[in-house]
From TrEMBL:
Keywords: S-adenosyl-L-methionine, Transferase, tRNA processing. This is tRNA-uridine aminocarboxypropyltransferase. The keyword Ribosomal protein does not apply. The lineage of its organism: Bacteria, Pseudomonadati, Pseudomonadota, Gammaproteobacteria, Vibrionales. Its EC number is 2.5.1.25. Belongs to the TDD superfamily. DTWD2 family. It comes from Vibrio hippocampi.
Length: 193
């Protein structure tokens, strides 16, 4: 019997060797809904593997958010009427920020925001993107929504580092093909990353 990879958990389609290491000046906390830990379709874990300054914190409704105690200035990445465009932030604002990304379904993310007064008080930023999501692993995706990993890649691109963002998305598309092949119980044949 073939054992699953201890790092990625896949049996036939280990993608570990393809994971790029992206060094950028983004500090991101993925505030992850506990349901995401149980979903094979979660992409936040990929962002953590790829980005140098990306950490995961599990959201607990009645627990303080550790990322808010950081020395950095917390900003919530969430599209809202009072959100600023990420690409309108100055270099200094980005350098000092701890970006908090709600890693959950859109419905869960809205509940997390509504049930956490500390999050409501944070300055909000949003990604302005014309890019269509290539993420098709979940049903009920609304047009224009990006998954957690794609949001991180867009942030890198909007920092002005298109080559690093391209590396992230090349890997992501490879990962998606590997994941789909794994679900079907076969090995993905294209090894080009």
């Amino acid at each position: 019997m073939i054992a699953a990879c201890k790092q990625c958990g896949l049996i036939h389609n280990c993608y570990c060797q393809a994971i790029p290491k992206i060094a950028c000046d983004l500090y991101i906390t993925l505030l992850t809904h506990e349901n995401e830990l149980l979903r094979a379709t979660n992409t936040g874990h990929l962002a953590k593997k790829v980005l140098k300054h990306c950490e995961v914190e599990i959201w607990q409704r009645k627990q303080p958010i550790q990322a808010l105690a950081s020395d950095r200035i917390p900003m919530l990445l969430f599209p809202d009427d009072d959100s600023r465009a990420f690409n309108d932030l100055s270099v200094d604002e980005i350098a000092q920020a701890q970006f908090i990304v709600l890693d959950a379904t859109w419905q869960e993310a809205k509940k997390m925001l509504n049930r956490t007064p500390e999050l409501k008080q944070l300055p909000k930023v949003m990604i302005s993107s014309n890019t269509e999501s290539s993420y098709a692993l979940r049903r009920n995706q609304e047009k224009g929504n990006l998954c957690t990993y794609e949001v991180a890649a867009q942030m890198v691109e909007q920092l002005g580092d298109a080559s690093q963002s391209d590396k992230m998305m090349t890997f992501f598309n490879y990962y998606l093909a590997c994941f789909q092949a794994e679900r079907s119980g076969h090995q993905y044949k294209n090894s080009t990353v």
